[in-house]
Amino acid sequence: MKNGVIYIGVASDLPRRVGVRNSRELNGFSRKYNADKPVWYRFFDTMEEAVQAEKRMKEWNRAWKIREIEKLNPEWRDLAEGEL
Question: What is the rounded distance in angstroms from the CA atom of residue 6 to the CA atom of residue 39?
Fold first, then answer.
């Protein structure tokens, strides 16, 4: 949801990570803030690159994050529904 919490994280297996998140098995940020809809992703060649990008994106202001999401997913569809 565009007005909700925007969670940024890194995963080595995105479909598995989304499944764990959706099962609500783990206590953490996404469970606490109900961040349960993947709307954007990006693949990197190495985990190091992914972690560096994650750190940079967490410093972005909200408007920048929204613009980046809407380049890939202007309707904010739940990408776990068949597109990961």
Answer: 9
Residues 65 and 59: their CA atoms lie apart, in Å, by 10
* CA atoms of 3 and 6, how far apart (whole Å): 9
Q: Give the model's confidence band at 66: pLDDT under 50 very low, under 70 low, under 90 confident, else very high.
A: very high
Is the pTM of the predicted complex or chain greater than 0.90? no
Nearest to 82 by CA among 21, 18, 33, 34: 18
Rounded distance between C-alpha atoms, residue 74 and residue 71, angstroms: 6
SS3 82: coil
> For residue 17, which of 5, 29, 4 has the smallest C-alpha distance?
29
